[in-house]
Fold this sequence. Notes:
The structure is a homodimer.
Chain A: H1 7-19, H2 21-27, H3 40-54, H4 57-60, E1 66-69, E2 75-83, E3 89-90, E4 93-94, H5 95-109, E5 112-124, H6 129-146, E6 150-158, E7 166-176, E8 192-195, H7 201-211, H8 227-237, E9 241-245, H9 251-263, E10 266-270, H10 278-287, E11 301-304, H11 309-318, E12 326-332, E13 339-342, E14 348-350
Parallel strand pairs in A: 5-6, 10-13
Antiparallel strand pairs in A: 1-2, 2-7, 3-4, 5-7, 8-11, 8-12, 9-11, 10-12, 13-14
Helix pairs in contact in A: 2-3, 5-6, 5-8, 8-11
Amino acid sequence: MGEQADPARVLEKIRIAEETRRSRFIGQEAITLSHGAGGKASFELIEGLIGPAFSNPLLDSLDDAAVIGLPQGLRLAFTTDSYTVSPLFFPGGNIGSLAVHGTVNDLAVSGAVPVALSAGFILEEGFSVTQLRAIVEAMALAARKIGVPIVTGDTKVVPKGKGDGIYINTAGVGIVRAVWHMGRDAVQPGDRVILSGSIGDHGVAVMIARQGLELEAEIESDTSPLHELAARLIDGVGSALHCMKDPTRGGVATTLNEVAQGSNCAIAVDEAAIPVRPEVNGACEILGLDPLTLANEGKLLAFVAPEAAEKALRILREHPLGADSVIIGEVEEGPAHMVYLRTILGGRRVLDMLVGDPLPRIC
Amino acid sequence: MGEQADPARVLEKIRIAEETRRSRFIGQEAITLSHGAGGKASFELIEGLIGPAFSNPLLDSLDDAAVIGLPQGLRLAFTTDSYTVSPLFFPGGNIGSLAVHGTVNDLAVSGAVPVALSAGFILEEGFSVTQLRAIVEAMALAARKIGVPIVTGDTKVVPKGKGDGIYINTAGVGIVRAVWHMGRDAVQPGDRVILSGSIGDHGVAVMIARQGLELEAEIESDTSPLHELAARLIDGVGSALHCMKDPTRGGVATTLNEVAQGSNCAIAVDEAAIPVRPEVNGACEILGLDPLTLANEGKLLAFVAPEAAEKALRILREHPLGADSVIIGEVEEGPAHMVYLRTILGGRRVLDMLVGDPLPRIC
């Protein structure tokens, strides 16, 4: 997993990179695939161009969903994602189930009960009606299982060669159940970092399907809805639950870095504690990928006060989707914005965000 | 505007077409551009495939926004649209301003005050950062003028040749202000049909920009936010305001047909009363288009009880965006689902939905 680096030197590099992020983005002339990969380049695009233009306190928090105060003390969670995954069908799911789970999960980790989804389709002229039907039925089934209706939608068709079969946008609204503030800025030194299961399944499943590889072991995407796991944590752990995230594009490495930045803390995780299926590990070695930067679509990371960590772990493990939950590390006071990996060999290396674009169109 | 037809015979044809709509769609194998044009084929796709799969009472109403009951008696309006307009920049606006106005207008005609928007970008690799900046700034400006924040977003990048520069999805949430039920099913015989200004401007402006035509008169898109017009009607007219719609894709003809179907009534409109700018009329003649089927992006249709119609007209005319408001017709008991045009020559012809696809990618 790369060579060891001097933390102080890397920290200085990160600081310089952050300071120059905006100005560097301004110098770019064209969008690249990296800008959509969920790692550093995506961050630059959002922080350097889109964020400043739209700037407002809700957007600026850059959390998975915006939380909007409504009259009568209600708090509405609101989120959106576009899905451009290639191929459209992969072991364990398709773009339709993904589009429902992904947006429900953004609501769930924001502490909200999903209330309704929208669905916007951009279809390419000539797209197969049979495939469209399969995708729409997968969305309907996923939504029905969760108990969230798809209440509004839109369909556009673009000429052949101006799309890629189908792109789906879903937005979601939910009512926030947690009465305390959750978010990256609520994460505190001492918090335990809990991961709800093995990582990299979705990224590897899509990559294998895309490249048409034949591997002995079938690897399925973990695409699943996290609303039940999240709700049980909220009910069982209460305000000791400081933050939840779902490590999708950019993987656990990118999500941990986002939390380290949003909390002004450091995070240390144990490489040996992070569950990776042997077949996923094997595929990663063949494909030259790091499971820590691969997308997951049915896993959550929870940041929990130390005294409640064991209880949180027990709650998660009681649910089929959280059976393999583990504590993978803890939050430290500093150096701020730093994520460390304590390696199996006893070393300590900086775990950076996804850089570049090993896996475009993973969701 | 086409030859006169025997209403009874046309009605029978419509009835047969409706009955076989689902089965006909099932027989199709591939998506065509017509499925995205907002007319009959779009209706078939939605009624024959997407609607039945997602079926629930909120979606089934097929209104511009879904209205969701929340705790404490709050009613949330929720809507989404994807924008694929080509070209991206046209006289009077660009895909960014359109993406904000279009979704705000869907909330507005649903009787809601816009509370927040989401923005999902699908960028094509190689897309110009300068153009992206101009589009994002137009969105930010439009949102700021309306006073609605863009609170959550997402950015995906697809490989060169798999997109067309930029596609934008916006979803919107709002709080419904009207305490009475508005919608197509609230429209009643006797209701006056009010149109807030001249039609076809957006459709013609985009068409001219797309084809690079040089015309003497510059025709600008009418892209504008309708939230103020709608709010004033709600406050001033009260429960005599039965329904509002914004006639976008498919134009006034398609919207009137949707209302006739949703209300089980007939609608009769006077051709002479419908305002069309002379330069729009001229361009339509050159391009072979019917202004009644062209998209508008800053006009509303209001269905108002007869005793309140003059007041509604006065209120609309007091606002710059409604200065040219007129009563264009009225709702009749039957024959159900029928829209008639009383022609300038004194005839009466059936006004059908947009059929086929004269104008793909108009929004």
